[in-house]
């Protein structure tokens, strides 16, 4: 149906249709009708023998007769125009009524079709009525089962079903800002942050949140690290005071502090098997496999890294800095930087490096801080706490390797790209994998689209040649946006 017909039907449904009236024709008819009546009356009066006009002189009668004839001609002409107008109006009215009749027929056809469909639907509904109940119940059961399975895989739903510790409720409660809506924040409330992985460790989290407000925090450093390694990162804040080492002393002054082992009294040793740095350094002599066995020995290998060329896989800091204009490498990040020796060497070149690390079998974070460097207690799963395009350099040694799930590694590489500024350097230092995985990881790194300044692949033999492991060392530059 055409739009104009649709509009006409809507008008027909709302109120009765009326033919369009030609008001000009009505006015002319009224005026001419009055004139005709007056002239007819005047003519009868004039031709009446008894009337005064009939007794007038012949000249007057002739004049009056002529006047009457002229008036009659005018009336005849006007009447002719009137009839033409009325004929046009009749044609318009016939057209309107014809269109109205056609639209009424279309409406009737639509009503008949609707009645047929309604009857068919009622018939089908009646036939399936007995089956519909059982089908509905079955669908409901399936949906409930799917919801339960989804909830089982959703930590938030599992968390909501359990009892949340009181202090965690206090921390995560939605709170209104004292001054109301803040346009800069785009909100009128404050929301506390906590890692979604905390919902997977409800029991450990409940234990972590058990403390006396305003008192000393529990001695639970291993529990904290256990939680963040399970995705409970960031941990919720607590309203208790961090435990302090007894008999602590002032740190060694900088720059001597960078290559001096700190005093044992400045460390809380409760969480570790070793209770001194001497114990930690002696682990290298034992046949044990632990991460960074000799990292705390600042007179051993740590002192020679990145300053002495031990092979094609080992890049020197001085060579790396020469790739960029002097003074343009200023700030950076070392992912999984152990005890902070890379940051110490870079600081000797006026470059400030933040070192992310964990406390795996040793006080890595405290050791870095005692050296006068900046530690960051952070796992590889946490989004890097830096704004986009801000760092001049990102470095990682041994950490970025095949022990990380491929999807997790891909997210991490893109996050490194996010924080690295255009023209910044990505230093891949001894990335390890087995030989059959080389194509996979090379392709993953190449997806970044970085310029290769240096790229070397070598054998990793510390566990034996039978493992067929390989190292990748690369120096890459993030491209700039081309206009």
TrEMBL record:
<dbReference type="GO" id="GO:0008168">
    <property type="term" value="F:methyltransferase activity"/>
</dbReference>
<dbReference type="InterPro" id="IPR004159">
    <property type="entry name" value="Put_SAM_MeTrfase"/>
</dbReference>
<keyword id="KW-0175">Coiled coil</keyword>
<keyword id="KW-0808">Transferase</keyword>
<dbReference type="InterPro" id="IPR053223">
    <property type="entry name" value="Prob_Methyltransferase"/>
</dbReference>
<keyword id="KW-0735">Signal-anchor</keyword>
<dbReference type="GO" id="GO:0016020">
    <property type="term" value="C:membrane"/>
</dbReference>
<protein>
    <recommendedName>
        <fullName>Methyltransferase type 11 domain-containing protein</fullName>
    </recommendedName>
</protein>
<feature type="transmembrane region" description="Helical">
    <location>
        <begin position="21"/>
        <end position="42"/>
    </location>
</feature>
<keyword id="KW-1133">Transmembrane helix</keyword>
<keyword id="KW-0812">Transmembrane</keyword>
<comment type="similarity">
    <text>Belongs to the methyltransferase superfamily.</text>
</comment>
<feature type="coiled-coil region">
    <location>
        <begin position="93"/>
        <end position="127"/>
    </location>
</feature>
<dbReference type="GO" id="GO:0012505">
    <property type="term" value="C:endomembrane system"/>
</dbReference>
<dbReference type="InterPro" id="IPR029063">
    <property type="entry name" value="SAM-dependent_MTases_sf"/>
</dbReference>
<dbReference type="Pfam" id="PF03141">
    <property type="entry name" value="Methyltransf_29"/>
</dbReference>
<dbReference type="GO" id="GO:0032259">
    <property type="term" value="P:methylation"/>
</dbReference>
<keyword id="KW-0472">Membrane</keyword>
<keyword id="KW-0489">Methyltransferase</keyword>
